[in-house]
Description:
Elements: H1 2-9, H2 18-30, H3 45-57, H4 62-87, H5 92-109, H6 116-134, H7 138-154, H8 156-177, H9 181-195, H10 197-205, H11 207-224, H12 246-280, H13 286-295, H14 299-304, H15 308-314, H16 316-323, H17 329-351, H18 356-362, E1 367-371, E2 374-378, H19 380-396, E3 403-406, H20 411-416, H21 433-446, E4 450-454, H22 466-469, H23 471-480, E5 481-484, E6 493-498
Parallel strand pairs: 3-4
Antiparallel strand pairs: 1-2, 4-6, 5-6
Helix pairs in contact: 2-3, 3-4, 4-5, 4-6, 5-16, 6-7, 6-8, 6-13, 7-8, 7-9, 8-12, 8-13, 10-11, 12-13, 13-16, 21-23
Amino acid sequence: xxxxxxxxxxxxxxxxxxxxxxxxxxxxxxxxxxxxxxxxxxxxxxxxxxxxxxxxxxxxxxxxxxxxxxxxxxxxxxxxxxxxxxxxxxxxxxxxxxxxxxxxxxxxxxxxxxxxxxxxxxxxxxxxxxxxxxxxxxxxxxxxxxxxxxxxxxxxxxxxxxxxxxxxxxxxxxxxxxxxxxxxxxxxxxxxxxxxxxxxxxxxxxxxxxxxxxxxxxxxxxxxxxxxxxxxxxxxxxxxxxxxxxxxxxxxxxxxxxxxxxxxxxxxxxxxxxxxxxxxxxxxxxxxxxxxxxxxxxxxxxxxxxxxxxxxxxxxxxxxxxxxxxxxxxxxxxxxxxxxxxxxxxxxxxxxxxxxxxxxxxxxxxxxxxxxxxxxxxxxxxxxxxxxxxxxxxxxxxxxxxxxxxxxxxxxxxxxxxxxxxxxxxxxxxxxxxxxxxxxxxxxxxxxxxxxxxxxxxxxxxxxxxxxxxxxxxxxxxxxxxxxxxxxxxxxxxxxxxxxxx
Length: 502
């Protein structure tokens, strides 16, 4: 399934924003730089995973990065199939069909592709916790601890969600399984430490990494006081009905229903799991309990930035929980004949527009462009941006020089194969004066030959214009660079060249 999906979409679409953010980081790792320490990044795991694939193929092209991500996503898809196979009470062909349905469902929701790591990790954490609940012995606690620690290497938030899921599953274990805690808890802690050891060792032996690591946590928790740029929750009752056709209203209404369904599943799932544990004094449905326990902390992913792509990263434990829910026999038959088709139809309606291969077939104007050696199909907006960046670089950037691209196109660095002159390659959030002065010092040293400033309010919020979030750097650019004409198709771009006289 994953191979077919990659063949269908591996050369389709391009995103200078988040996709470029990942691609640039993988490039820098191949050049010996360290994520977090040397450039703003996600946590290190995904970069080294992708870089290992690029080393094998002796390539830095984007399609190989996509292939590496698809391979990681496949781990999650396989874990979903195993989870449903072991949690289903169906027999024979029906059981196999339910597993295939679960894997196809997960694959559909793994969008956008560069977030396949996050979606797959949510499934892997669920399946690993289910193994502990099936047989809560010290060895499995240790193995699950390793999975949680490794998840944190790919994303500290995933490590935290894994820990919280374990804590949430503890009451069920107390009621039903009664493991030998004096052995299991130390084994689990040892597993977490071992899984997270690559980062722990870097913190201990590399002072620069340790400083940058703790500073990234301090900034989010105490300076910005958040984990993402928030968006209002698209509840179904907030959908604007006036002057809209029925077909136009269906998708936003379904998305809103998903945001209602996530917390409802968690509440109902907790009640069902506790009732079963208390009445039977045994853990009859460990896979279901693991889905509920993991779905609860992942609510933060969906609601911290309430859009479809973050919903996709949070929904998979919930969907798998629906498939292994301990229904009564009559309800189970109704769910098989009615619920599963509705789930498939709703998923397709919500998520297919986010798949570039589908979007290309329903939209017009897509064209092929060379992106770092790969020929990609992309929509007119992305194609225009790529062509403008390459033309500006051809005109104004001599060999050996770099550019500054702010705030939303870190992919410009990867596209041109240049090193960013500043640490913060994706400057969306407001930064203090001290940090901006450090960035200005880096700018002076690198002396970029071209500055591309995308003068937009991110999320249509004027407060998030670069001139407001990074006022000192903006003033430095205005004082030391001269502005030239913007590309005709993208008037929001402000283009600057060095002011020789200044």
